[in-house]
Amino acid sequence: MDPHDPAGSIADMADRCRNWGRWGEDDVLGTLNFIDDAKRLEAARLVQTGRTFSLAQPFNMDGPQRGWRRRTNPVHTMLDTGTDAEYGNQGFPHGLGGADDIIAMPLQCSTQWDGLGHIFDRGKAWNGRRAGQVVTSDGDHFTGIETTVDQFVSRGVLLDVGRALAEDLGCDEPELPDGFAITFEHIEATMERQGITASVGRGDILLIRTGQYGRSLREGWGTYAGGPAPGLSFTTAPWLHEREVAAVATDTWGFEVRPNEFESAFQPLHQVVIPNMGLFIGEMWNLEGLAAHCAAESRYEFLLTAAPLPITGAVGSPLNPIALL
Q1: What is the mean pLDDT of residues 91-107?
Q2: What domains are defined for the chain?
């Protein structure tokens, strides 16, 4: 990685990690192809106690968005209320009343998956298709998020990098400082410290906890959306490629370290792993409760279900991931 040559470094890394054609020219699943029936059965056998954890942030107007890229927090509005029912103006017979509501929000305003149509590399989308052929004003015609709705069920692995490295970094809390780049050496050190249940391999959905979300709960959102953050280093792309993970999610807004490691670059790791590797990225996941439980039990693997909403043609989707231990 040459920090002074982002274009050349991105092109070289894209060539190194590219999966175009690996699953055929019509493929829409990318790295989700690593999850097969045997993998799901393996994941199901991990359930021991029945304990569940939701990994979603709340979807409300108090969320992290600040309006950048026209991303706003969810706006929840009631269409019918108990007051309407009391006044009897809803038109129902025999005293029946009810409530209805509506929500308006960008699909990537809180806990979400980035779909394969979300990021392009030099005019190309996943599997080498033309970006303008894939996503138009009518949506994603090839890799819309609806193509993945029954795919995100696999073995989940939590790597609590914030907790594993905090003491080494002199941090008072089990979390990483903003701007900290997580390298593959940091990832493997975390795996070693957490033990055998933290091994990462083919078809796993990898969760990376930095601790930034927990810090935001204590101190307020601040610049959580789009500002400085710990995250994965650009140099982790080959590690993710070689491990054949199905998807990766973090507790930060942008997955990769911010500020980015190149001069005059924006989200270069996204540019490599989504359109070239076909890797699904999750962002803004709430890993705090799960991480505390995993640390107490010294167990970091679980059945994970993380289905997106089947929104036809969408390039991302909100979701409520569930870890079942």
Answers
A1: 94
A2: 6-68+107-324 (3.50.30.50), 74-104 (no CATH)
